């Protein structure tokens, strides 16, 4: 037999596609040709596969070898095709009867000694194989736990090419995938540790209840970072669908903890202020990889010292914040990643980082305005809550007892508010108040009475807020009502939402 075919999976962004790996071994001058839009890493597979086959005790066919990856129009990226290429090649050379792996997706990178090494993106690959009808997959041992998290697929693991060859010959068995065990919950920072800042805590709770973006503006040491780091602890755990989506993104980026089941806690990303556009929204050679805004999907993206970030990097977040996804166009194709996260910005009032309005501030008004202008109007217009955080007073910092509720208590209220929002919007597919389109809130049956929105409409007419800001105030009002266990917002909720949106107290 000079022809053989096995299955593998290729990734384009977070979307997996079943790939047929064909191998034809024919008479002619010895050569290895790989076709089907392979990238540089896949082109180099011929050298890895040759060494792995020889060092696994198999005979390398000294003939003309053609490896084709179907569909040929789909870009093939990465080393995850190595195991499938080696298996198809040995089958085409007549060394392996491939009936035992018929309909089985083979994933894994080969070392020169024949070891099967882990690859990125196994979780979305296995999920794609399941959607395509494959019920069995073979993955590297190090990737077995994440592959086993996909329901409806029988997962087997291999540590060497020799083990796979022995199994196909009926002389050995593959390894079983471990049963994913729930990860032990790690206690996070508690809201009770934050001294004072009642307004900031109230804004944090509302942001958690509705999935809103939040800006914390104020002097250094006031507690902005402490508040932001406690937001994930107020958010409910991810459901199965969201956990699979979030875990798939982390698997593609290669940051999924080894041996971990699905990620159940909302992710928290806090990139350094030197982050580039590509590191924030995604990029890289070939087809783009996910950036911090996608790794924070269903969680929190925190930009500390936001005014120190590169302006282009900050502005690149505008579209993801609006659409909840990132669409990156490259020469090899278009890559789309989900990016439905909560953005939290923290910024000082001026470069000297001394309390705003304090006698020790060394910055003239023009410098202060220029520094704040680094956070552009269009970007800030997409931030639902914009809170001015005052400096902590000695009485608040040194208080022996604090009236602040712990995160667990606030998280219970947030969970109840989120449940109310899900029930209300269940027929429309929206999961939180922050994702509800503005037109839906401005039309019956969700339109609020004119008397309750009079102050809001006046601000829109006078140009104090934009149309986008008008809709975001309405969303905030619904979140405030959900926290207070009321079915609809009233004028007081709208007024509070206006204050939290504009920073006017």
Structural class: alpha/beta
Side by side, the strands of the main sheet go 12-13-16-11-17
What Rg do the Cα atoms give? Answer: 27 Å
Helix share, percent: 25-40%
- Gross geometry: elongated
Oligomer: single chain
What is the beta-strand fraction? Answer: 15-25%
Question: Please, what is the average pLDDT?
Answer: 89
Total count of strands: 17
Number of helices: 21
User: How far is the N terminus from the C terminus?
Assistant: 80 Å
Largest sheet, described in full? 5 strands, parallel
Low-pLDDT runs: none
Provide an overview of this structure.
This protein is an alpha/beta fold and 505 residues long. It has 21 helices and 17 strands. The chain has helices spanning 40-43, 45-55, 82-92, 122-131, 144-147, 161-168, 198-210, 224-229, 240-253, 277-281, 292-295, 311-315, 318-323, 365-372, 377-380, 394-397, 407-425, 438-441, 454-461, 467-483, 491-502, and strands at residues 3-12, 15-26, 31-35, 64-70, 104-106, 109-110, 116-117, 136-140, 154-158, 175-176, 214-217, 268-269, 300-303, 325-330, 333-338, 342-347, 385-388. The strands form five sheets. The chain has a five-stranded parallel sheet. It has a four-stranded mixed sheet with strand order 1-2-4-3. It has a four-stranded mixed sheet with strand order 5-8-9-10, with helices on both faces. Strand 6 and strand 7 form a beta hairpin. Helix 7 (198-210) packs across helix 20 (467-483) and helix 20 (467-483) crosses helix 21 (491-502). The radius of gyration is 27 Å and the shape is elongated. The mean pLDDT is 89.
């Amino acid at each position: 037999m000079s022809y053989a075919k096995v299955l593998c999976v290729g990734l384009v962004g977070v979307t997996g596609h079943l790939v047929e790996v064909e191998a034809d071994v024919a008479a002619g001058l010895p050569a290895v040709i790989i076709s089907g839009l392979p990238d540089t890493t896949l082109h180099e597979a011929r050298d890895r596969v040759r060494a792995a086959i020889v060092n696994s005790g198999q005979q390398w066919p000294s003939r003309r070898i053609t490896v084709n990856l179907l569909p040929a129009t789909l870009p093939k990226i990465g080393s995850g095709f190595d195991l499938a290429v080696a298996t198809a090649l040995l089958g085409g050379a007549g060394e392996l009867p491939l009936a035992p792996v018929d309909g089985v997706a083979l994933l894994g990178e080969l070392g020169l000694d024949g070891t099967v090494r882990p690859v990125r993106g196994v979780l979305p690959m296995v999920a794609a194989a399941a959607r395509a009808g494959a019920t069995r997959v073979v993955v590297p041992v190090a990737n077995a736990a994440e592959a086993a998290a996909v329901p409806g697929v029988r997962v087997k693991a291999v540590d060497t090419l020799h083990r796979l060859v022995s199994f196909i010959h009926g002389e050995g068995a593959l390894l079983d995938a471990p049963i994913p065990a729930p990860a032990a919950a790690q206690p996070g920072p508690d809201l009770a540790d934050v001294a004072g800042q009642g307004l900031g805590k109230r804004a944090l709770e509302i942001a958690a209840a509705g999935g809103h973006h939040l800006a914390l503006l104020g002097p250094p040491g006031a507690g902005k970072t402490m508040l932001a780091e406690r937001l994930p602890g107020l958010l409910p755990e991810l459901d199965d669908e969201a956990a699979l989506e979030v875990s798939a993104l982390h698997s593609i980026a290669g940051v999924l903890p080894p041996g971990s089941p699905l990620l159940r806690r909302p992710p928290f990303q806090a990139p350094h202020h030197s982050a580039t556009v590509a590191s924030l929204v995604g990029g890289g050679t070939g087809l783009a990889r996910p950036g911090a805004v996608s790794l924070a999907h269903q969680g929190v993206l925190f930009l500390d010292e936001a005014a120190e970030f590169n302006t282009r990097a900050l502005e690149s977040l505008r579209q993801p914040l609006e659409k909840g996804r990132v669409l990156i166009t490259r020469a090899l194709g278009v890559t789309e990643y989900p990016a439905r996260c909560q953005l939290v910005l923290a910024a000082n009032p001026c470069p000297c980082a001394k309390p705003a309005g304090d006698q020790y501030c060394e910055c003239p008004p023009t410098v202060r305005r220029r520094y704040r202008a680094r956070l552009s109007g269009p970007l800030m217009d997409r931030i639902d809550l914009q809170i001015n955080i005052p400096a902590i007073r000695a009485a608040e910092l040194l208080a022996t007892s604090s009236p602040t509720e712990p995160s667990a208590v606030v998280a219970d209220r947030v969970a109840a508010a989120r449940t109310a929002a899900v029930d209300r919007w269940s027929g429309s597919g929206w999961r939180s108040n922050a994702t509800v389109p503005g037109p839906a809130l401005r039309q019956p049956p969700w339109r609020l009475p004119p008397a309750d929105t009079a102050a809001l409409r006046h601000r829109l007419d006078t140009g104090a807020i934009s149309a986008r800001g008008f809709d975001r105030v309405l969303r905030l009002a619904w979140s405030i009502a959900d926290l207070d266990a009321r079915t609809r917002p009233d004028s007081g909720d709208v007024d509070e939402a206006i204050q939290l949106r504009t920073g006017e107290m």
